[in-house]
Amino acid sequence: MTFVVHGLPVSRGIAIGRAVIVASSRANVAHYFIAPEQVRSEIERLRVARDGVAAEIEALQRSLGDEAQDAHPELSALLDVHLMLLQDEQLSHGVRQWVSDRHYNAEWALTAQYEVIARQFDEMEDPYLRERKADLEQVVERMLRIMRGQTTLSAPAAPSVNEGPLVLIAHDLSPADMLQFKQSVFAGFVTDVGGKTSHTAIVARSMDIPAVVGARSASHLVVQDDWVIIDGDAGVVIVDPSASVLAEYSAKQKRGEVERERLLRLKSTPAVTLDGHRIELLANIEQPADVQAALRAGAVGVGLFRTEFLFMGRSGQLPNEDEQYHAYREVVEGMHGLPVTIRTIDVGADKPLDGHTRDDAHLNPALGLRAIRWSLAEPAMFLVQLRAVLRAAAHGSVHLLIPMLAHASEIRQTLALVRRAREQLDAQGQVHGPVKLGAMIEIPAAALTVPMFLQHFDFLSIGTNDLIQYTLAIDRADETVAHLYDPLHPAVLQLVSNTIAECQARGKGVSVCGEMAGDVGMTRLLLGLGLRSFSMHPSQILQVKQQILRSDAGKLSAWAHSVLQADDPAALMAD
Ligand code: PEP
Ligand code: MG
Question: How far apart are CA 461 and CA 163, in angstroms?
Fold first, then answer.
């Protein structure tokens, strides 16, 4: 039966595919298709893992001994339950089917079948039986652990036509999980939680595939293998669509593809307004590999390299100076002389270094030890990153960007550490290059003290995602207040406009690198407010360029300033 789930549109386009439900804790399990001739070896891997877990449990039972078993009857019974679940026919038969019929790799097949059985446990009336879901989860986790230790017998294969596209449905995915899926088989994503500018949504956007977040209970309503349409423009998920709805969306999907092809023709066209203002269109990237997408879209530089993604999902093993240097150098050289803005690490809040969901250990993680605050609290780690960036700067044009500054003392400490990093490199005889120094304006306190920032920095970059979050007191990752997250709030617009004007008055560079810069509905307003440098995901560049080519910045100025004065700026946006 068809039903519709509503969420927040975060990445444009239409995806149609079968649902793969993934629990966030298992999101880092490999998902790939195997070749048909690998089915037997993949099933063998599962058998080995199952037998391995059975042997572990039996060894545990033996180690308990008869006396201990008498002393802890509940533990002994629990181990029996685990053994029983492990040998359950529904589990092994289902898993075999995912492998042989769908060609899922072993880990994926196991987690897919786990989700099917877990759903049945959830629906049980008997609380004792319902709780057995946790036991099943433990058994599955044990098998996954054993498989992690195995050498993979099968190399990933491309999906064959009859496997069809797949879409991923999860309760929550961390930005690091999302990054994992970057090279994956999924044609679209849906998560129950998250706001439009949550970092998970940002990574989804950078992958340029349709995504909907904040879809509340999608991961409970959708069943493994359901057909699903994701409308990333409208924020709608249609489950089990009828043939006519499917045909309608397939046609829409094709129109979208044609439009993208058409936009590609603008790649080498300079971004100049009708009245001759040249606009700089830069790329936001998360990984060195994203440079290719930036160049394909015709970006004239990288306006924001979110370096924290190099640090995530490494089980506490932070990348050392050389590793970082090579990653930064790869980007700098990959951009062939175009400027690269490297932002120092911004972890915390909804970007935890490890673990899969946000840092809720602190009462207000978004107001806590995040970004530059974290770096200044860990000066040794920060110096490693600064030295790596300064070394990479010897290979091209590098701008060093500092996130979330608010206080004069933070500025002083940061600049002192940049000087110290240079001295350390000199002492080691290491080659390093000059950098332009920039600060992000992400906190209202910073936007209200722009002249102080301009005394110390060569340029500013407005991080509207956080500036909106902190101006309006709306957690950007919380879907329950997403309707209040408003880039057009007069207070936000005044802070943005004020920052642009102050930079221009002092002849300093200013750009916007938050999601507002890539929102084509905002392009005319930002042009009218005087912005001449925009940084966004490569996938958004050509659409924004098209809008710029159709705009007269001079004429937009008066209108933009009337929008700025309005109580309800949204009402004037269509003028
Ligand atoms: C921003 O806050 O607008 C920004 C670009 O930084 P991030 O989204 O990584 O917090
Ligand atoms: Mg930010």
Answer: 45
Structure tokens at 123: 């629906």
Q: Are 406 and 443 in contact (CB under 8 A)?
A: yes
Q: Assess contact for 268 and 542: CB atoms under 8 A.
A: no
Beta bridge partners of 342: 305, 400
Tell me the pTM: 0.82
Q: Is 464 in the pocket of ligand 1 (CB under 6 A)?
A: yes
Distance between CA atoms of residues 406 and 412, nearest Å: 11
* Residue with CA at minimum distance from ligand 1 atom 9: 306
Cβ within 8 Å of residue 414, ≥6 positions away? 372, 375, 376, 402, 405
Tell me if 328 sits within 8 A of 389, measured CB to CB: yes
Closest CA to 116 of 5, 22, 192: 22
Compute the residue count for the chain. 575
- Residue 130 alpha carbon to ligand 2 centre in Å: 42
Pocket test for ligand 1, best of 465, 467, 515, 536 (most atoms within 8 A of CB): 465
175 lines ligand 1 (CB under 6 A): no
Q: Both tokens of residue 53?
A: 């877990």
At 318-334, the pLDDT tens digits run 899 999 999 999 999 99
Q: Which residue bears the tokens 């001079």?
A: 554
Ligand 1 site, residue 513, Cβ cutoff 6 A: yes
- Give yes or no for residue 549 having a pLDDT over 50: yes
Mean pLDDT of 266-287: 97
Q: Annotated active-site positions, please?
A: 199, 513
Residue of 171, 234, 240, 248 lying closest to 3 (CA atoms): 240
Contact 347, 311 (CB under 8 A): yes
Find the ligand nearest to 199 CA: 1
Tokens of 335: 């951009």
CA distance 333 to 161: 38
Spatial distance between the Cα atoms of 237 and 227, rounded to a whole number of angstroms: 10
Question: Residues 538, 290: contact at Cβ < 8 Å?
Answer: yes
Q: Shortest CA distance to 150 belongs to which of 92, 104, 105?
A: 105
How far apart, in whole angstroms, are the C-alpha atoms of residue 321 and residue 323? 6
Ligand nearest to the CA of 202: 1
343: Cβ below 6 Å to ligand 1?
Answer: no
Question: How many whole angstroms from 466 Cα to the centroid of ligand 2?
Answer: 5
| In the predicted structure, residue 275 carries a pLDDT above the cut 70 | yes
Task: List the structure tokens of 308.
Answer: 């924290």
Which residue matches tokens 């203002």? 277
Residue 150 has pLDDT above 60, yes or no: no
Helix (H) or strand (E) holding 295: helix 291-296
Tell me the C-alpha to C-alpha distance, in Å, between residue 254 and each of 227, 498, 542: 18, 42, 18
- Please name which of 167, 169, 181 lies closest in space to residue 218, comparing C-alpha atoms: 169
Q: Is residue 306 within 6 Å of ligand 1 at its C-beta?
A: yes
